[in-house]
Amino acid sequence: PEPQREAWKRNQIASFTDKDGFEKEVVRHVETTLARSMFNCDEIAAYSATSLAFRDRLITHWNKTQQRQTYVDSKRVYYLSLEFLMGFRIEDVVKQEHDAALGNGGLGRLAACFLDSLATLNFPAWGYGLRYRYGIFKQEIIDGYQVEVPDYWLDFNPWEFPRHDVTVDIQFFGQVNKKTTGGRTISVWEGGEIVRAVAYDVPIPGYDTPTTNNLRLWSSKASGGEFDFQKFNNGDYESSVAEQQRAETISAVLYPNDNLERGKELRLKQQYFWVAASLYDIVRRFKKSRRPWNEFPDQVAIQLNDTHPTLAIVELQRILVDIEGLEWDAAWEIVTGTFGYTNHTVLPEALEKWPVGLVQHLLPRHLQIIYDINLFFLQSVEKAFPSDREILRRVSIIEESQPKMVRMAFLAIVGSHKVNGVAELHSDLIKTTIFKDFVEIYGPDKFTNVTNGITPRRWLHQANPRLSELIASKCGGNEFLKDLTLLNQLEKHIGDKKFRKEWAEIKYANKVRLAKHIKDTTGVVVNPASLFDVQVKRIHEYKRQQLNIFGVIHRYLTLKAMTPDERKKQLPRVSIFGGKAAPGYWMAKQIIHLINSVGAVVNKDEDIGDLLKVIFLEDYNVSKAEIICPASDISEHISTAGTEASGTSNMKFVLNGGLIIGTCDGANIEITREIGESNIFLFGNLSEDVEDLRHAHNYGSHTIDPDLDKVFNEIEDGTFGNPHDFSAMIAAVRQHGDYYLVSDDFHSYIETHQLVDEAYRNQDGWIAKCITSVARMGFFTSDRCINEYAEEIWNVEPLAVDRRSF
Ligand code: H53
């Protein structure tokens, strides 16, 4: 209102620019917001007031960013992801803050790194996700077994803003009726039930820029208000809350599977709920500009993080045709011009398919549209390949199986203008295997690669402040955090003894910190002078934690067979494992159990002492990764070649001055290209040989590596507890075709670990390798990824910021 304009202009929101101002704000929040005083300000109040003070500043920047983005009205990016593994915490104030653990593994953490880069690079961008009440479960280890405990993380979250006024009603079930209006026949989706989506906004600040973007998370709630008062007054309290509870179930819990799709109805409901609310929001924003519809793809780029949001393609087509009245072809051009699809896996068990009957029941109109999309697509394929009868069956979005299934990846390809993989090998593999036919149909240009990256702000500057500071002192200040290629200046200092000494001291201090964490959480004392060998990631057979623990057993047996004098010459090692198994993944849980059982025997063996310790760290998550990564000497990225799309923790470990042992898989290959072959320990079969090896296991003779056989025999002798517990793991290799090539790679794995030991004995040489590697890691910043997406897929530009206006 006009009379108040002046007041608005006079910087209406309290903020601070220095320590005194900050303190003042904290005190103000303690006294006014929390209604406390100096005398009853406990840790929780201090924490709350601190975060509220920061939050105020965040809001100001965020409001200004949003106002400016709206005013300029340039093209925006929307990143649709079912997972954002943010992991924020202020450890030093009080252990109060929960990890925002709204993700499982690499896919969700990548989304979080991308949000950081988008804001840092000043792109007008929004993330859209679900506000789960329960994030990924907390893992407890009881008697060596994983036990899942729910993670209720919303007690107090100062970083989100409920937007009770931003709601969208989402329809499910019902039926489709044809109606004719004005000479046009249209499809009307009627009946069914409505669930309300409520927006919660999380500000995403960039590094060294005022740009503060938005992550909008949707929460589900019953559309008819709190509960049915009629029923309540009639004494039927239970059913009056039932509807509300059913609605709230949709956003209640994150599915705890990584690289595994289970096809549950509630999961499909989550996907549509989230996608429909997000698209409604995006379309509403576009319509404010009153531009013609054909300009939609000039204003909006939507990136699909895996196939989970693929229904967005169908939903946008529905909005344009059924609601806005566009012709099918004009609408479809807009749709395909808008979407890009990122594939993150070739594993068959992770590729999403939904039974046609389930989609029909839940989303009847969407199934019709999917059939029409498929029809027009197959017609065009038939025209282009008239003599190829098989191709139609192979590429159909509908799999003619029993029951029929909707192939979400195929729908995503057909509905997008670009498809990308996440590392070079992976992007090549999708073009030659699972999406081969689509390369024939659309030509190679539709398919591209954007190798993953990580944000150096979190994974170096925050996780390893001392190393970050040392690097800054050699690279001309903190600029390298925004241009990671500046790390290359480190190479000229490799000969500097003092620098190498400081480098080694920092690594040692980080190892001391991890050793303390190990002592506090497991009771096991480890010697920080040992070589720390780390494998932390989701537990999965393709990631081969079983190969690692079999290797550990082999090392144990070798040490046991030595004389005390021989043992004295050996290098002490700590094998550190961490990671969650999906609750329904039995084999993964057995692997955890074996690791703990081996630890229980080895760690108390007096012949062995410091020479070998085996640790399983409970509840691996983002905050723990920040303690673990800086403390590793060598980390393991040992997936069967061709199975790990990229991997991103490999990048975190190298950036923190650790070396890696790995297979020729995912981003390991590009890391090798960048840092040089002499700075990485590669082993094992290549992806082009995997198929033949598997075939030979099943149809030829399959001999097990003799060293691995000894390991198996030892397990079967009961050295590590009841051998029955581990018989399935052994049978997978010996009898069931060794799908993950554990035996084929065992020998080269063991030999390569010997090379690691030898290299580590030469500490000067080792540190030189570490520094060289860090110096050459500039390519793996997620800033580079975002710039590639922006240029090649989104066609968006950053928005220049005027710092003075903030
Ligand atoms: O995505 C990461 C990759 C990693 C890949 C992972 C992933 C998930 O975490 C979940 C599902 C899925 O299809 C893929 O396994 O290799 O680095 C980010 O791209």
Give the helix/strand layout:
Blueprint: H1 5-9, H2 19-33, H3 43-72, E1 76-80, E2 84-85, E3 101-102, H4 106-120, E4 125-130, E5 138-142, E6 145-149, E7 161-172, E8 175-181, E9 184-190, E10 193-205, E11 212-222, H5 229-233, H6 237-249, H7 265-288, H8 296-299, E12 300-305, H9 311-323, H10 328-338, E13 339-342, E14 353-355, H11 356-362, H12 364-384, H13 390-395, E15 398-399, E16 405-407, H14 408-414, E17 418-421, H15 424-432, H16 436-442, E18 447-449, H17 456-462, H18 465-474, H19 497-522, E19 531-536, H20 545-560, H21 564-568, E20 573-578, H22 586-602, E21 612-617, H23 622-628, E22 634-637, H24 649-655, E23 659-662, H25 668-675, E24 681-682, H26 687-699, H27 706-716, H28 727-734, H29 742-761, H30 763-775, H31 782-794
Parallel strand pairs: 1-4, 1-12, 4-11, 12-13, 13-17, 17-18, 19-20, 19-22, 20-21, 22-23, 23-24
Antiparallel strand pairs: 2-3, 5-6, 7-10, 8-9, 10-11, 14-16, 15-16
The protein binds (1S)-1,5-anhydro-1-(2,5-dihydroxyphenyl)-D-glucitol.
The site of (1S)-1,5-anhydro-1-(2,5-dihydroxyphenyl)-D-glucitol has 19 residues, from helix 4.
